[in-house]
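Consider this one:
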Amino acid sequence: MKIAIYPGSFDPITNGHLDVLKTSSEIFDKVIIAVAYNPEKKNSGLLNVDERVELIKKCTKDFQNVEVDSFVGLTVEYAKQKGAKVLIRGLRAVSDFEFEMQLSQTNSALDKEIKTIFLTTRPKYNFISSSSVKEVFDFGGDISKFVPEVVNEYLKEKLKK
């Protein structure tokens, strides 16, 4: 069984993330969306790790070969624990490439058995990032075009509280 890890913060998961996931799920037998958690950054995100995991589970319920999990530590160590040999990284634009290449090379230096593949989003998602979604949301803008409906509704409810 070919298992791939799709790691990230996913704060929040976007339509671009789901686009990369769809492609990944067509290539691999199993894809684990692994929400990276840094206990040192307790209140630094829009959503806590449990909220992210639950929302991602709701967004991916129709994917038969996708699992959602969270982890602390090095991604390559998590991949080894899960029996995965591949890390998936999404690219939106050329500007992502330098950071992603450096990350890929670091992971390769830590474990040469773990490979990284880069998948691009469809052009209509190239401009969407979790950071830009958070900024639009923080200033009261409409994020419904950028995130799955379940995420949009959850954040609107969270804002009311």
Q: What stands out?
A: Helices lie at 15-27, 49-59, 75-82, 94-110, 130-138, 149-160. The mean pLDDT is 93. Residues 94-110 form the longest helix (17 residues). Residues 137 and 159 are 9 Å apart (CA to CA).
